[in-house]
Amino acid sequence: MNVAKPRILCVDDEPINLKLYDAVLLPQGYDVLHAASGARALEIIANEKVDLVLLDVMLPEMNGYEVCCRIKGDPEWAGLPVVMITSLQERRARIQGIEAGADDFISKPIDQGEVLARIRGLLRLKELNHRLGQDYERVANLATFGAESLRAFELDSFELIPRLDRLVSRIIRQSADATDRPASVLVGYHLGAGWRWLHYEAPFRELIRRELDLDAAGLLPLPPPGGANSFFADRAEFAVRGLEPFVQLLESLPRLAASMRNLYGYLSSELCVFAGNYGGEVGAHEAVVLEVLATQGLFFKRLADQVREADECLAGGVDSLLRLAAIHDVEPRLHPERVGEFSALLAAGLGQSAAFVRAIRLQARLHDVGNGFIPLEILRKEGAPDFQEWEIIRGHARFGAGIIGDHPRLAMARDIALGHHENWDGSGYPDWRRGEEIPLAARIAALADRYDSLRAARPYKPAMDHGAACAILLEGDDRSRPEHFDPAVLAAFRELAPRFAEIFARLQEPVGERRAG
Ligand SMILES: [Fe+2]
Ligand SMILES: [Fe+2]
Q1: End-to-end CA distance of the chain
Q2: What's the gap in Å between 427 CA and the centre of ligand 1?
Q3: For the CA atoms of the chain, what is the radius of gyration?
Q4: Which of 8, 57, 242, 269 could tie 86 with a disulfide, CB 3.0–4.6 Å?
């Protein structure tokens, strides 16, 4: 709790009056400052924390009205309550005080009870104003955050946990005196068959997130799907709210021991938020802030579910196409998957974004989907194809791109299918593109595909070991030249070659499925 005493600045040029204020205010627990002139009063206000000003009207040089005008005219000080002390009973003096912005008046000789009552009232009002301002700022902050999140939303790079991190960092206590904020926040969300729980604290400003291994959802009084239940509860109410078993489980975790007091709870069938350990009184303002937090969290969670479903649907579609292509293909069954993994490894090594890496891992698998176009007798022919057969085999690039189609989410797959046999030096097919005319994803998949093709056995060639495949890619042979590859991709391969060997060893068809060399 914030226990700083309210500080009152008494402005009067008569020392005896200042002593009188001390006698009234100090025993009531107020901190008192003195100023004998208007100029000195303004200096103190500028440099010290002051909660209220008792201001005599009759001052030398700058009178009380002018001091009051200066205080109320400065946006930084305008909220500071000013009580004018006047011996003038005239209406005119009060009107002048109101015009100067005074919050209240007290007549001399002062009445102790009246002074204290007015001070208490004004300080309470100031505190409420302060809290209202803070809460407004916090709600506005969350609303702005929500709008920014929507503007910055990208389907390819959406991840729930970083969103939750940023959301929680907006409301959690990050300094010891912010007692109107929760010291810890627990977020649980339903994922697949179970729940995941994240616990947050920010004792040294930096947000600390821990994933909790918590089998807790069965202990919570969750509302049915579509419903939500939010509340504040202190310890005494936990049993009534049905939270006792859940809180006991939390408190049994060694690193969270005794951490749940003064709890805000938001329960729904998909997302739960608990904000706990408020240092002071909690009320309607905090409820609004937490409600906004929970609602935005729920929104992000639903968005994450949709994104995951869309990703799974896309991956399912890719698998279907691959199964179809495999009926008519002689490639080793895991060739597409290995090319996807090699491509992802190279893309990450080239510093591409996580979204690019994720996309190429999936979409490079479709590079040979056009093999369905090649007659089986050519694909299964023992020995090397003749010139005419090579022409037909080469058609798989364009045919694959046609099968994949024009949807923007499969644009990378299309680029790869069409471009994975193009060479950096322009000697490839089907369009003799060169250099950066070939999309980056296709330049990456080209090397990944070539490595796997060298390693795996084909009807017309035996399998090859890692060292021999690397030597051909990096130094060349009668068919392959290093100039065929993007130099940056080849450099990344040189660095990552040992990982290629690991992936190839890990992703192997069962022995019975392998083709004899
Ligand atoms: Fe191919
Ligand atoms: Fe291939």
Answers
A1: 78
A2: 15
A3: 37
A4: 57
* In a domain? residue 100: yes
* Residues 494 and 357 occupy one common structural domain: yes
CATH at residue 349: 1.10.3210.10
H-run or E-run covering 245: helix 244-252
**Has residue 225 got a pLDDT over 80?**
yes
Distance from the alpha carbon of residue 488 to the mean position of ligand 1, in angstroms: 21
Quick: pLDDT tens for 58-89. 888 888 999 999 999 998 888 899 998 887 56
pLDDT confidence of residue 326: 78
Ligand 2 centroid distance, CA of 473 (Å): 15
Query: Is 271 in contact with 297 (CB distance < 8 Å)?
Result: yes
Q: Return the ligand number nearest the Cα of 339.
A: 2
Q: What is the mean pLDDT of the chain?
A: 86
One domain for residues 58 and 167: no
Q: What are phi and psi of 48, to 5 degrees?
A: -130, 160
The rounded Å distance from CA 502 to ligand 1 centre is: 23
Q: Is 425 helix (H, G, I), strand (E, B) or coil?
A: coil
Ligand nearest to the CA of 417: 1
pLDDT at 515: 44
User: Are 159 and 67 found together in one domain?
Assistant: no
Q: Is residue 140 part of a domain?
A: no
**How much distance in Å is there from the Cα of 307 to the middle of ligand 1?**
30
What pLDDT does residue 329 have? 67
Is residue 143 in a domain?
Answer: no
Ligand 2 centre distance from Cα of residue 311 (Å):
24
E strands present in 98-177:
104-107
Nearest ligand to the CA of 420 is: 1
Domain total of the chain: 3
Residue 86 lies in a domain: yes
Q: What is the pLDDT of residue 2?
A: 44
- The band of 385, judged by pLDDT with boundaries at 50, 70 and 90, is confident
d(CA 404, CA 417): 8
Q: With residue 136 as reference, give the H or E element that holds it.
A: helix 112-151
Average pLDDT over residues 309-332: 84
Domain that holds residue 260: 153-300
Ligand (nearest to CA of 455):
2
496 CA distance to ligand 1 middle (Å): 22
Distance (Å) from CA 506 to ligand 2 centroid: 18
What are the tens digits of pLDDT across the range 163-174? 888 888 877 887
Query: Binning pLDDT at 50, 70 and 90, where does residue 517 land?
Result: very low
List residues, by chain if needed, whose CB lies under 5 Å from ion ligand 2.
Answer: 368, 449
| CB-based burial label for 347 (10 Å; 0-12, 13-18, 19+) | buried
Q: Indicate whether 123 and 185 sit together in one domain.
A: no
Residue 46 near residue 71, CB atoms below 8 Å: no
Mark whether 116 and 173 lie in a shared domain: no
What is the per-residue pLDDT for 512? 61
